[in-house]
Amino acid sequence: MKKIIILLITTFLLISHTILAQGTYDDTPSKKNDETKYNPVIIGSQIWMRDNLDLSTFQNGDRIPEVNDDVTWVTNGIIQKPASCYSESMTYFNGYGKLYNWYAANDARGICPEGWSVPDNKDWEQLINYLGGEKEAFSKLGDSKAWTKGTFNNSSGFTALPAGVRNESNDGKFSAKGYATMWWSSTPSDDEYGSAFHLNGYYTSFVRGDKYKRNGYSIRCIKK
Length: 224
Prior knowledge:
The protein has 5 helices and 11 strands. By secondary structure, it is an alpha+beta fold. It has one domain. A 3-stranded antiparallel sheet has the order 8-9-10. Strand 6 and strand 7 form a beta hairpin. The longest helix is centred in the first third of the chain and has 23 residues. The chain is globular. The N terminus is likely disordered.
């Protein structure tokens, strides 16, 4: 009887240890800096990822700080420290990717998988021109099933989703989910602002703007 009890206790401890190990080991594709979950799409002479970036490490394996509370988000931006987050709504996890500040997007350790990079202004402008200009590109980029505003046909295959943004000027709070998205460019404007490209369902064009580097936007990598 004593041997049976010891055997049961030992088995329980082994199972518990295995479950704990599985619970703390994160090896899903969305958490690894690789390209296994990103289906490429060819648009003209460019190759883009079809999905927004959803990674938690830089190329060298360093963790990208995940920041959930508003105060820390703003603080990280002020001290020019990388930050990432998911949208505040659980329904935005799948396909929408993470939001990153400019310092994460353009960190020297590289945020895109090897062989990919954050597009610069020329890359984005080439995409816009190939699709026929700012107004024509608007309808060709988005997946209409996901947007509450705007008419899209996704003829480019880019499959833009309205992931929303996280604004430093709004005390680090989220906004625009369901009707807008912004992607970082690697091109800086100055010490405080970076370039970003904006798709908004309330408007009818895809445009560039100078935005606070402390804001949280999506990243769409391009093959280099």
